[in-house]
Amino acid sequence: GVTKKILVIPGDGIGQEVTAWGKKVLETIAANYKHTFTFDEGIMGHVAIEATGDPLPDSTLEKARQSDAILFGAIGHAKYDNDPTLKVRPEQGLLKIRKELGLYANLRPIKLFDDLLQASSIKPEILQGADILFFRELTGDVYFGEKNRSEDRNSASDLMIYHKYEVERIARKAYEAARTRRKKLCSVDKANVLEASRLWREVVQAIAKDYPDVETEHMFVDNAAMQLIKDPKRFDVVVTGNLFGDILTDEASQIAGSMGMLASASVGDSIGFYEPIHGSAHDIAGKGIANPLASVLSAALLLDISFGLKDESQRVIRAVDATLRQGYRTMDIANKHTPNEFVLGTDAMGAQVLKNLN
Ligand code: NAD
Ligand code: IPM
Ligand code: MN
Q1: Over pLDDT 90: what percentage of the chain?
Q2: Residue 333: closest CA among 113, 123, 10
């Protein structure tokens, strides 16, 4: 077996509730396959602000740098969402760790489990067979450009900026992935209006020449938002900027049935960082009803991408598949019109996955 150090950062709200299950899955895999995974825990977000005043304390960043992979939950608290004047905010911790660790490529696979065909609000025949891999650029764009507020406080701006090298490196990663899939790449931008998008399109067009075996398509983001719902099967790999990628993947979660099903991998210069795409979900936090599968599937991505443990990763995905086939659902993927469904809370659902792992 292999020996690895994993840093777990549960964060806030349902992050705490679901990450416990991603971690348990990693522990179970380690036991079953005779690997040695050692776990450390770090704080980030609202809990870290409460404890230290800093959404990403140096101690957490230091632990992150010393680990072989990171499993993250979610950050955020209603207090900040309701008060935009607060200067220190949980989200800053997440943005900072992505930047510090050079996590420029955020992979968000959108794949529907067979048994969830009825869980989505989209018609089954539109969904069946949809399989999309998003490459969301994660350390540039309007997220990291200069921010300004005028002295009279009556105007504000966030600079949308991309550098050629940033577009090149994410585009290459996306093309490499397309080569291993259905060899189609769709680059999404707003080049009809934005200069940053015109740079984006220019760079992708240039990189495309190195991948003649991959079919390239350029699409405006407004159209992409519509096509995703109209005909999700037309997409294979999608590469896009930080903001568009954020929005389009929440939309695309409906293709997989729920936000509670979507995992992600952030990779780049060094270690990998794995997290559900969802947030801390104040509306359901503390109720024990959040879907833990996005965290479980994030653990599966971690095993595959950071540790190269493909069999173990597939084993986790099969355990999720089996759990859904047995009819177990959390409330976000339940369908009252489908018989033989058992609606469970977070812990009972997690426990079923563990059972199917053994
Ligand atoms: P959210 O993703 O937290 O929730 C959106 C909706 O999806 C809610 O109705 C929620 O109940 C539901 N949902 C999300 N995850 C679920 C799960 N696992 N099981 C069942 N239902 C689930 O987005 P939001 O409400 O816009 O944001 C809440 C807070 O989370 C904010 O403070 C925001 O900044 C933060 N946020 C953090 C991250 C992150 O840490 N990566 C991502 C998005 C939002
Ligand atoms: C996500 C989140 C974050 C983002 C926020 C919380 C900073 O929405 O991970 O998708 O916008 O990247
Ligand atoms: Mn988001």
Answers
A1: 96
A2: 113
Q: In terms of pTM, does the model score above 0.90?
A: yes
The answer to whether the beta carbons of residues 234 and 228 sit under 8 Å apart is no
Q: Is the torsion defined by CA of 262, 116, 248, 131 positive or negative? A: positive
Tokens of 101: 């660790």
What DSSP line would sit under 150-164, residue for residue?
-TTSS-EEE-----H
Q: If DSSP codes are grouped into helix, strand and coil, which group holds residue 259? A: helix
Res 173: pLDDT: 98
Please state the atom number of ligand 2 nearest to the C-alpha of residue 275.
Answer: 9
115 catalytic per annotation? no
Instruction: Looking at the CA of residue 45, tell me the nearest atom of ligand 1.
Output: 40
Please give the mean pLDDT across all residues of the chain.
97
Q: What is the ipTM of this complex?
A: 0.99
- What pLDDT band is residue 125 in, cutting at 50, 70 and 90? very high
Catalytic residue among 190, 211, 274, 304, which?
Answer: 190
Ligand whose nearest atom lies closest to the CA of 280: 1
The predicted pLDDT at position 336 comes to 73
CATH no. of 121-255: 3.40.718.10
Query: How many other C-beta atoms can be found within 10 angstroms of the C-beta atom of residue 221?
Result: 22
Kindly report, as residue ranges, where domains of CATH 3.40.718.10 are found in the chain.
1-108+262-358, 121-255
Residue nearest to atom 5 of ligand 2 (CA): 91
Q: Is the CB of 346 under 6 A from ligand 1?
A: no
- What are the binding residues for substrate? 98, 108, 136, 222
Which pLDDT belongs to residue 304? Answer: 98
Q: Read off the pLDDT of residues 192-248 as tens digits, 9 standing for 90 and up.
A: 999 999 999 999 999 999 999 999 999 999 999 999 999 999 999 999 999 999 999
- Tell me the CATH number of domain 1-108+262-358, given options 3.40.718.10, 3.90.1170.20, 2.40.128.90, 3.40.50.2300: 3.40.718.10
Query: Is 280's C-beta closer than 6 angstroms to any atom of ligand 1?
Result: yes
- The question of whether 222 is a catalytic residue gets the answer yes
